[in-house]
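In this supplementary section we document a worked example of the pipeline. Step one takes a protein sequence of length 180 as its only input; no multiple sequence alignment statistics are reported here. Step two produces a three-dimensional model, which step three serialises into structure tokens for compact storage. The input and output of this example are shown verbatim.
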Amino acid sequence: ITTDVDIVYWYPLLDSGVNSFMILDGYVVVMGTRELSGGAFTYYPRRIRWTVPGTYSDFSGFGSGTQDIPGFGDFLAGEVVEHTGVIFEKGGIGALNWTGETDPTAGPIWTYRQIARGLTTISNPVVHEGAIWFVGNTGLLYRTNGIEAVPTGGEFDLSKFTEFPPTTPVQMVFVPATRQ
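The serialised model returned by step three reads:
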């Protein structure tokens, strides 16, 4: 993100452990930022920053802002289900909701609550039919609606394979034609 004068914020969307953003209730929300401070970039792994509502690049006008989210570990991915941003992080899964406030000086714009501690994703999250589906670090297929994360109960279980490493990424795809 640049201004006419200099670089103010840099969002590491391609070349770091944090590579996620989401569009939530009219805001572009980026997660994990590098921000220019004292001539050098500082990395904030638990910081979210959002745009002016209805814009995709105005991170400095009225209604935009920043908020440090409590917890530990970098953000891995973010997806939206209904009006909830689900944030997958190294130490768990959380939910982000807009409070209805638009003035960041009046109070928090977003509320954050933890959905699951210790459970994280080793796959790309896939949104389908009002839920987010992902392969958890346990090897099981999970579903979250932004309120809770539960195993699907099917036969999918990567931990049955002896070569299953719980830190190796798994690619997940949903094919609408076959509903699989």
